[in-house]
Structures are given as C-alpha cells and as structure tokens.
Amino acid sequence: xxxxxxxxxxxxxxxxxxxxxxxxxxxxxxxxxxxxxxxxxxxxxxxxxxxxxxxxxxxxxxxxxxxxxxxxxxxxxxxxxxxxxxxxxxxxxxxxxxxxxxxxxxxxxxxxxxxxxxxxxxxxxxxxxxxxxxxxxxxxxxxxxxxxxxxxxxxxxxxxxxxxxxxxxxxxxxxxxxxxxxxxxxxxxxxxxxxxxxxxxxxxxxxxxxxxxxxxxxxxxxxxxxxxxxxxxxxxxxxxxxxxxxxxxxxxxxxxxxxxxxxxxxxxxxxxxxxxxxxxxxxxxxxxxxxxxxxxxxxxxxxxxxxxxxxxxxxxxxxxxxxxxxxxxxxxxxxxxxxxxxxxxxxxxxxxxxxxxxxxxxxxxxxxxxxxxxxxxxxxxxx
Length: 383
Description:
Layout: H1 2-12, H2 17-38, H3 43-52, H4 70-83, H5 85-108, H6 113-122, E1 126-128, H7 130-133, E2 140-144, E3 147-157, E4 165-174, E5 178-187, E6 193-196, E7 210-220, E8 226-229, H8 235-267, H9 274-303, H10 308-336, H11 347-354, H12 364-375
Parallel strand pairs: 1-4, 2-4
Antiparallel strand pairs: 2-3, 3-7, 4-5, 5-8, 6-7
Helix pairs in contact: 2-3, 2-4, 4-5, 4-8, 5-6, 5-8, 8-9, 8-10, 8-11, 9-10, 10-11, 10-12
C-alpha cells in the first residue's frame, strides 16, 4: 500500500524535494545526537526517508520514481547534512547507486529499467562497497557450475543494517586473461551474507558503516553485470566518479555549513575584537571555497560525459572541497574557543563528522598524481 501511495503521489504532483528535505532534517536532528552518543544506526531516519519517497526520488517518472534532478538531489543531501550528518551520508550511498543507472538509462538506454522499477515499487535500499574497493576490488570468486562462489569482506558499507541489495565486486583469476574484476548485486538476505558490527568510529557514528561479509555466496553467471581488468581505469569508474563524488561531498558541505553557523552563534556571545572578526571572515572564506568547488563538481557532472578529463575535474573539486571543509572544522573550533571541547555545544561532533571527508576516493595524493599525469600528457591506465 505504501509503495502504491508513493507512486501515485509522484504521478499526481511535482514534489518540492528541497522543502521536504528541510522538514525531514528538522525531525532527524535529535535522533542524530542519540546515534552519535551510542554508536546507533539512524534506522528511524532512514525509514522516514523511505516513507517520504526520497529513496526513489532519482528514479525517472516513467519508471515509477520521483524524477528528481541530479542537482536537486545534491541539494537535498547538502540540506540533510546540516541537520544529520550520518543520515545524509548513508543516504548519499544509496542515492548514487540510483543515479548511476539513471544516468545510463537517460544517456545510453541501458537495460537498467528493471532495477530502477524495483527501487520505485519495492522501495529497495542499495548498499555500495565501491569506495573501499575502487579499481583493485577485493575478495575472491571461484568458478562453479552456473556461476561463482564469492568470499569477501566489504568494509565501510554505510547503511548496511537497512539495505536490501549490495552493489559490489570481487576478483576472479580467469585462467585465460588473468585477474578480472566481476561486478554484481547480492541480496542482503542471500545465504552466506552477514553483517559484522565493526562500526565504532571517530565520526559519522550513525551511518552503520559495518563490514559486510560474503562467505561462499553463490552469484549466477547471469547476475554478473560487468567484467573488467583489475586495477585499470574503466568507463564505469569514470561514471562512478562523475555521479557519486559530488553527491557524497554535498553532504560534507552541508555539515560544514552547520559547523560555521554554530561557531558564529557561539562567537556572538563573546566580546568581539578584530581578531575574532578576522577568524570568522576566514571561516566564511573557507566555506565559500567549499561551496564554489562543489558547484563546479555538480555542474561538471550535469553537462559532461564520463572520461579522464571529467574525472580529473571531479576529483580536483573533491580535493578542494575536502581541504576547505576540514579548514572550516578547524576554524570553527578556534572561534568557539575552549567551550567547543564540550560535547553539549555540538561543535566537536561536527568537527569529528567532517574528518570523514578525508577518506573517500580519490584521496589527494592519488588525485594529484592523476591530474599531473594528464597535464603532462602521460598515458594513464591505472593509479
């Protein structure tokens, strides 16, 4: 009944996704604090996103979804990031797994409509292991009759406790062509799939980014969506870079906005002097740098095609956003002074959550190497 009501709503009216995100964000804030203090997954928040229709917002309307644009969803994630860092980051991992097949449907007429229809009608929540796997992937695939037996441990799987479908990959030692990465989807209810509750982290504590363990999980030949050479750039990773990274970093800009606002709120209670004004001005400079870099990433993703030049633009933006939001975190703590050390003021949590911006691919060293290789005209095939 819920799925039918949601589909009917999509068909009857154009939803204001940004206003919906503001409304939900206000509801999510309290649960975010509880999750942070107790290492609890923000399950109720994710369920509300599901009921609201946001889980299927990016699915094209002709496939039963909400038809939200890529830019709208980046803004939704940024808004949610202001209120609930963990909810926004976990949601971004599902969202990019929706928007990648949506891009392929819109631009390549790829046969992904079955998956997207399921997201819309069944309200499927997808789980990604791409960030921790990247070009190398991990785990092993053993060929058996009709498919493969997969053994792997997928770490940093944000949203694992509520996910329905794991979008992942592993390595098969093909006797003819060598190390080959297989890409596939696995139901979280499949035999041999378990979640290990490993997520006790510095920040983003409510994301439920546990380890997903695959123990001799059977994946049929027909479920293998892609085969590629291990460690080499492939079209799919240019597409992932273009679509996923701006969505994920929209969350961090939202968290940085929350940190800035909290720091300024606290600064207004102090005696104002020129040095304090100087620091607040610097804080706003860093936040503006993050916003401008993010906007460049988003506009690049909207108008470009996947490829090395697009990946370079996106990953350069990712490095600049990460650096700027981490500077926002530092300056916010400085501006608030020693009181920022108290958990009750909220800044230390935002500081911790923003540290996650360091770790998504490509990290700055790899990004700078790629950018330099392209600038110098080198033939790039791997990191």
